[in-house]
Design brief:
Blueprint (H helix, E strand, L loop, with lengths): L4 H4 L2 H8 L5 E5 L5 H14 L7 E5 L2 H14 L8 E4 H12 L10 E2 L2 H14 L12 H14 L3 H8 L7 H17 L2 E2 L1 H14 L1 H10 L2 E4 L7 H11 L5 E5 L14 H4 L1 H4 L4 E5 L7 H12 L20 E5 L2 H17 L7 E5 L6 H9 L4 E4 L8 H14 L4 H8 L7 H14 L16 H15 L4 H19 L3 H15 L5 H7 L18 E5 H4 L4 E6 L17 H14 L2 E10 L1 E4 L3 E4 L35 E2 L7 E2 L8 E4 L3 E9 L3 E6 L3 E6 L5 E3 L2
Parallel strand pairs: 1-7, 1-8, 2-3, 2-6, 4-5, 6-7, 9-14, 10-12, 10-13, 11-12, 13-14
Antiparallel strand pairs: 9-17, 15-16, 18-20, 19-20, 19-23, 20-21, 21-22
């Protein structure tokens, strides 16, 4: 089957696909068709005579590799199915099975999944006497996460804990002992975890030259997807696999490097031309997803990044609504604004699955979840569990439910099982005793074999205190949280993060004067969060930005775009983490196809400090020269239509360093050499940026360009 590459690809994609031998970096902007480009490059290599089995395609999921090769086979022919595609881990597994004995790795090693690794760590904790409850030593899942990050980041364990989990510093010595025992057990029993696969694969490539040369002979062309997400070991492995011929093409977007917490290294894509000095850099900048006003906002956000490949996303879809910024009165007002606009969109041509609400952290959506549930708007949440499904939230609310209804069996069970020395049998007996006594919580002190327990006495005192402060749900929540805090610290290694969730619960209670009203709003039986339980099109999407990467929706709301939240308060001012926060907002903005909204509250109730002022994120300042954003103020730019349900503040639809004009932007022009094109934006006072079908994106100086305006 013959492929007309010139017809089916834009100029930049064509350049990438037709690239011959040697290294190349394809900087693929959001929505620019990177997968299409990789598919066509695979087909082109096979069509040009490259043996399919000598092409290696490395991706981050097996599904991605299978999809690309399937599309390539459909595009050309079945030969593309012989291309070797898979993940870095699958490649490492294959090579270690063949050549592992060269570095003392037996070919019949067993791969540990995450659960297997955690079980070994649990055994190590117990063997070292660290599993005693009173020690509060980190759980197996926490240990696994910390150890894995240290390996992937190539960071000393002590430095990692100091930077990321300082509350674990007191356990550092024993954590090292656990890790040593874990490593010894794996080596003794021929076990490799996921991190070992990559590390031993890299060791093999470094140390054993003949193995490296054998792989270089086997694979004449190497393609890598999502290169910005590689960790140091993966990037170094790519260098070895490229060999002396360096026929390696990597695709990625530095502006979408947002997974450092998984070990991804932003510098890998930035330093690619350093590793490969003769690398060709090809930029895919034509976007097929969003309207130009949305792209202009995204371009502005990322333009202030300190280190980047300069690029400017553009599209032929020059019309569209400019992004909107809402400055809400408080967190609940923000939820109301978002919910109102969602209902407004649903009254029009939008379906629920056309709409997404994105946020930096999972707990940022808690108040909105309650508002949507109250309006009967179903949603699916990705990236963290729903607010009311979190165990620590359920624990706290269960205490409050008992104050309102002492016959709530399941709340009693949940509360009693939190006490030391109380199991399911004793809890069931206690509940029956309370029920028969008709004395409610006051019966706790008289329960046989239980009333004398310190925990039971403390619980009875808690209920006594709560009964004295009726009419103030916030104070009642605060009192329960004070009681629960020692339990939280003992149960969860990530208790600092969960404590912030409890602050959100306190803030939510601020709006109510009756506990029953608060509990009616905070239901303990929220809608299912599994997408497969809903029919097509009947649910909204709520998602962390990290979980939304690679996805798209017609309308996107980004909430809590405020200082201390976005960027996070723990991020250093001039750090790489701050740069990643900027990239995270860029990723959020580029998920939107037609409508984009940013919002934040002007005040927030912080436990222990009262009401605090909240300011717009510094990342929004580039959208309007740092002007304050207030949804009650007059809009700047195109005025809102009369059907808009809430006031809004719109962002001027110009790109970084550009300004939209009434005279040229969006108009068709004819160039004497390039033919007919569309003006994308105006740059400075005397230049325009235009897209021509025959030439692509071109910057023209108005004083000299031979152009005429067609409309």
């Amino acid at each position: 089957m013959s492929i007309n590459y010139e017809k089916e690809l834009n100029p930049a994609q064509l350049e990438a696909v037709m690239h011959g031998n040697g290294p190349a970096l394809i900087v693929a902007g959001a929505g620019s068709g990177k997968t299409r480009t990789l598919v066509y490059r695979v087909a082109r290599l096979v069509e040009s005579g490259v043996e399919p089995s000598s092409i290696l395609l490395l991706t981050f999921t097996r599904r991605a590799a299978e999809e690309m090769l399937s599309r390539a086979a459909a595009l050309l022919d079945s030969r593309c199915a012989s291309v070797e595609g898979g993940t870095f881990h699958s490649m490492a597994n294959k090579v270690l099975r063949m050549y592992g004995p060269e570095i003392d790795i037996p070919p019949d090693f067993t791969i540990l999944d995450r659960a297997d690794s955690e079980d070994i760590l649990s055994w190590a904790r117990k063997d070292l006497g660290l599993n005693r409850r009173e020690l509060r030593f980190p759980r197996k899942s926490t240990l696994m996460s910390v150890f894995s990050q240290a390996v992937n980041r190539r960071e000393d364990l002590e430095a990692l804990v100091e930077r990321q989990s300082p509350h674990l510093k007191r356990f550092l010595g024993d954590m090292k002992r656990v890790r040593t025992l874990y490593e010894e057990h794996k080596k003794k029993n021929a076990l490799l975890d996921y991190d070992d696969l990559l590390e031993y694969f890299l060791e093999l490539l470094r140390r054993i030259e003949w193995v490296r040369l054998a792989l270089n002979t086997r694979y004449s062309h190497v393609l890598v997807d999502e290169f910005q997400d590689t960790n140091p070991s993966q990037s170094e492995a790519v260098t070895y696999l490229a060999g002396k011929d360096q026929n390696v093409v990597v695709v990625g977007d530095d502006s979408q490097s947002i997974y450092s917490f998984r070990g991804a290294r932003f510098k890998n894509i930035i330093d690619f031309p350093v590793r490969f000095p003769h690398a060709r850099i090809i930029k895919l900048e034509q976007n097929y997803r969003s309207t130009q006003p949305i792209l202009n906002a995204a371009n502005r956000i990322i333009s202030e990044a300190k280190e980047k490949y300069t690029k400017c996303l553009y599209t032929v879809r020059t019309e569209g609504s400019p992004p909107v910024i809402w400055s809400a009165e408080n967190e609940h007002h923000q939820s109301v604004l978002v919910a109102n606009e969602i209902e407004h969109l649903l009254e029009g041509d939008y379906r629920p699955d056309d709409i997404a609400v994105l946020f930096r952290g999972s707990h940022h959506s808690f108040d909105l979840e309650v508002e949507l549930a109250n309006r009967g708007l179903s949603f699916v949440k990705y990236g963290g569990i729903k607010f009311l499904e979190a165990a620590h939230i359920k624990d706290v609310v269960s205490h409050l439910r008992l104050l309102a209804n002492s016959s709530d069996f399941f709340s009693w069970q949940r509360v009693l099982l939190l006490l030391d020395g109380v199991g399911l049998k004793r809890a069931t007996q206690a509940i029956q005793f309370v029920k028969e006594s008709n004395a409610g919580y006051r019966a706790l002190a008289t329960i046989p074999k239980m009333g004398s327990l310190p925990g039971a006495k403390a619980l009875a005192q808690l209920f006594e205190d709560l009964s004295r402060i009726r009419g103030n749900p916030r104070q009642q929540v605060e009192r329960v949280c004070a009681y629960y805090n020692p339990i939280l610290i003992e149960k969860y290694d990530d208790h600092p993060k969960r404590a912030r969730h409890l602050e959100e619960l306190m803030s939510l209670a601020e709006r109510f004067t009756r506990l029953t009203d608060f509990l009616a709003e905070v239901t303990l039986e929220p809608p299912q969060s599994d997408a497969h339980l809903h029919g097509p099109g009947d649910t909204l999407t709520l998602s962390t930005i990290h979980s939304a990467k690679g996805l798209e929706w017609k309308a996107v709301f980004v909430i809590w775009v405020a200082e201390q939240w976005f960027p996070h308060s723990l991020v250093g001012e001039d750090s790489e983490e701050m740069e990643e926060e900027r990239r995270l907002l860029y990723v959020a903005a580029t998920r939107a196809e037609e409508r984009l909204y940013f919002s934040y509250p002007r005040i927030w109730y912080k436990h222990g400090e009262g009401l605090i002022d909240v300011h717009a994120s510094r990342f929004l300042s580039s959208l309007e020269s740092g002007a304050p954003y207030n949804c009650s103020k007059r809009a700047v730019g195109p005025a809102p239509t009369r059907t808009d349900p809430v006031p809004r503040h719109t962002v001027p639809s110009s790109g970084s360093g550009m300004r939209a004009t009434n005279s040229l932007t969006g108009k068709r022009i004819r160039h004497r050499t390039f033919g007919v094109g569309i003006v994308i934006a105006e740059q400075g006072e005397d230049k325009i940026m235009a897209h021509f079908d025959q030439k692509g994106l071109v910057t023209l100086k108005l004083a000299y360009a031979p152009i005429e305006i067609l409309d």
